[in-house]
Structure formats: structure tokens, C-alpha cells
Amino acid sequence: MSDCLALTIAIVGTLAPLFASCDYYNSTLHPPGPTGFIGSIITPTFVKAAKDGEIAQLRLLTTDVKKPKIQKYVEDGGEQVEAFGINYDQPSTLEDALRGVNVLVSVMGAEGDYSKRKTVLLDAACQSGVEVYFPSEWGTNHNRTKRYHPIFEAKSHHHHDAEARGLKVVAVYTGLIIEFCFCKWFGVDSAKNTWVIPGTGNEPCAMTSSADLGPYSLRAVLLSHNEPDRMPSQLEIYSDKGTWNSYADAMEKVSGNPIRREYLSLEQAVKNYDAVKDTLPPHMLGPFLPILTAENAFDHSEDGIKVLNPDHKFFKPKTVAEYALEVDGKPWLNSSPFG
Fold this sequence. Notes:
single chain, alpha/beta, Rossmann fold, six-stranded parallel β-sheet, 12 helices, 14 strands
């Protein structure tokens, strides 16, 4: 039996709403779990990999095994996919579910008492003999900024704690998600044909398509098991790395209408955030993103791409220009990706 076939993977998360609000300065981003935002994007790829024999078994750890989407994953994956009910107040349920697992992929949300849940999960992973751990990152590479945010501090502490306890840790940073970020939440108003762009608009901004996140994640998991020395502890990925101005150009080319571009300076972005930060729950990241964009925190390295998908060997990433064609150059016209 090959290394790939001997691989058992677990995906774990919590079930929660994705966004409390889709307003530009009052949005909250927390990928919930196998049936939530990031979980719903990557899990089907792993289900197919299990069914096709790339991996021996996929375990879906969830607080609600009866959820229709979980049942559909199990049905689609056949004998190779199994759902495990877990209770964070009963750590033994996690330990039992993780026993025999090689790689643990977390898409746990940051709402509620997430620090406690992550600690329970990490304890269970160590007790059960998990070898590789993908913590719940799947977004901003917070190592690229020195600015303080409570969620970044918590994530960094968790990462270092997991490494100190002997786990191989791989954090995947996606930048922004193409299919979700071109909306009012990030200052893009297609109805008014106006974009509020943080910074000068010429800072490189890495974005990953939801269509590519699953394939990237699967490649990362397989390599972390088969060739762990090739996998860094921090892995930046992207499908496209243009600028906000180039992305606006791509939309204009398709729609045929010039976009009014208003630029939000770093200084003003900081003022806007400072004005509301004391009213925000610690996991709310949305109002902080314009600062990171303006200070060039999304200028991802190509190193992760060269490891996971060199020269597009395994799949061709989707570009913002291709997305523009799908939406006729008017992303989220009179609508929102977050309800």
C-alpha cells in the first residue's frame, strides 16, 4: 500500500453563521467547519480524494452528524468517509475520533470560546498520535504585519504551542477569496460602479479562488505526509496576485463601464478602525483588512505555489479576469455573498 493510500485525514470545525453583517466596517469573518464557509469549499475535494483512493480514510468531526451536508459527504464518499460526533466538553470524543489519524485539518471558527475549543482539540491531537496539524488559518498571513489584533495573537500562540508539543504544523494563508471579496463588504459597489480601494491600489494583493482552495489544500496535506521536509510551517498560496487597480481594470474591460475609484489611505484606514475597535468582538477581522491591504500585507511569496503546483502541473488556477467574465464585470450587483 502506498503512502497516499495509507493516509487518514480528519477535518474538524464548529457549526456557526458565517457573517454577522456584510457592512464594510462591521463584518465578521469566521470559517465555521466542514459545513461552513472554508469547510464547504475544501471538504468536497477531500471526499473525492477518499472515494478515488488517494487517501485511505476521511473523518469529518462535527458537533452535528445529522446535518444534511455531513450526511451527503458520507454518502458521496462511501466507506472511505465517516462522520464522528464530537463534544468539546467531553474531550474523549475528540480523542476517539482522532485515534489513527495522520493529518488533522482544522477549519474551526473564531466565534465563542474558540480558545478553549482549540486547546481541547490540540490536547486530543497530541493524545491520539496525530502527526501533522493544519490549524484554522485559511486567510490573512498575520505574520506579515506587526500591528496588534487579538485574533492574530491567539493564532500565533496556538501555532507555536502546537509545534512545541511535537506536531508538524502547516498554516495555510490564502489571502482574500476571489468569489467573496468583490462586494460592499470590501468597498466594491457594482450598483453605483464605485470601488473604495485601500492604499494606492497598486499594492500586490494575493487572492485565492474558491475553486482552487480545495486542490491546494489536498496537495498540501499529501505533501505534508509524504514529504514533510518540503513543507514549511507557513504556506502562502494564491490563484492571482494582481493589484486592486488591475482587478478593477479587468472588471471594466468586461462590463464596458469605467469604475469610479476612491482611495482610502493607510492613515484613514487606521483612523476608521480605531474609531470602532473597542466595540468589536475579538474575532471580528473585517474592519482591520483595509489596513492590511494598504500596508501591503497580501503580497504573498511564490514559494508555496512552487511547492504545491509548480508550473500549474496539477491544476490551472482561476484568475480574477476569468471571474470577471463569469459576473459580466459586475460582481455582487445588488446582492451580497453573505446573505
